């Protein structure tokens, strides 16, 4: 007796394959450019905001794994006009195009 499908997208289609394939199983920001851009912009803006609240929190961790957040702060500060334009474009895209 065959087992029932776990989800509708796993049910075999007319071609004999399961659902929509690998693309339906990997709904991550890594594989979607717009989602990846949104996550990066949110990271840059959040780190810059945290720096404005607590200066010593991010400035003492310049190396290691937490150094990524320090680098995000510096990138957000040095490229703030570009980051702002990208935030506006992504917000417009999410609100009106999707």
UniProtKB/TrEMBL annotation:
<protein>
    <recommendedName>
        <fullName>Protein kish</fullName>
    </recommendedName>
</protein>
<keyword id="KW-1133">Transmembrane helix</keyword>
<comment type="function">
    <text>Involved in the early part of the secretory pathway.</text>
</comment>
<comment type="similarity">
    <text>Belongs to the KISH family.</text>
</comment>
<feature type="transmembrane region" description="Helical">
    <location>
        <begin position="79"/>
        <end position="97"/>
    </location>
</feature>
<feature type="transmembrane region" description="Helical">
    <location>
        <begin position="36"/>
        <end position="58"/>
    </location>
</feature>
<dbReference type="InterPro" id="IPR051523">
    <property type="entry name" value="KISH_domain"/>
</dbReference>
<keyword id="KW-0472">Membrane</keyword>
<keyword id="KW-0333">Golgi apparatus</keyword>
<dbReference type="Pfam" id="PF06842">
    <property type="entry name" value="DUF1242"/>
</dbReference>
<dbReference type="InterPro" id="IPR009653">
    <property type="entry name" value="Ksh1"/>
</dbReference>
<keyword id="KW-0732">Signal</keyword>
<keyword id="KW-0812">Transmembrane</keyword>
């Amino acid at each position: 007796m065959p087992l029932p499908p776990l989800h509708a997208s796993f049910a075999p289609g007319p071609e004999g394959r399961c659902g929509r394939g690998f693309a339906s199983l990997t709904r991550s920001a890594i594989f979607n450019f717009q989602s990846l851009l949104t996550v990066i912009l949110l990271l840059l803006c959040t780190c810059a905001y945290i720096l404005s609240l607590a200066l010593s929190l991010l400035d003492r961790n310049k190396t290691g794994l937490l150094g990524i957040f320090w680098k995000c702060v510096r990138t957000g500060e040095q490229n703030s006009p570009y980051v702002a334009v990208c935030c506006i474009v992504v917000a417009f895209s999410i609100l009106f195009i999707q």
